[in-house]
Amino acid sequence: MLSRLHRVPSEQTGHRNTALYSLSDLGLVNTPPDSAFDRIAALAQKLLRAPIAMLSVIETDSDRQFMTSLRGAPEPLAGSRELPLRYSICKHVSASAAPLVIPDALHDIRTHAAQEFGRVGAYLGVPVRGPINDVICVLSVIDHAPRHWHDEDVEAMEQLAALAEREILLRASMRTLGLLQRRQRGAA
After folding, report:
1. Closest CA to 41 of 142, 148, 117
2. Which of 6, 168, 183, 187 is the most buried (most CB within 10 A)?
3. Domain of 167?
4. What is the CATH number of the domain that holds 168?
């Protein structure tokens, strides 16, 4: 599997060269559940009173959605934490780089395939951006019944996405710092 590589701009690293990081380096794919991201998903689940919450990475090169954090999902999804993109609703958030609000998923063509993994009545997803403002994850909640999502719900999800973004930026910064320290030791 190929992981996307991202660049941390030189303004952030303080050096001319840019540092590379992969999604797996940041603990976003092919990793066991991560407590930092699990707390964010748990908050989304609780604040929005939704039975399912997740932080997902859309990997178009691997044709899959990997759920870095997943709360409340049934098996087999809970065990595998991934699904083919043809079943993904989150891919629409990633592609548009904008929130997606679906109050009645039972009558929305974008969600029909996802129904195979359990009843999706309503969906709310927001983009999570990386250090160079590219969408690298999607934070979303699902309700089993149709429901009206309020502006405050979208705002709460965007605030939680900002927490995930800070965690991702911290991890990218720590990786960059480690690379710079190794370079400095090698130059000495």
Report:
1. 142
2. 168
3. 5-187
4. 3.30.450.40
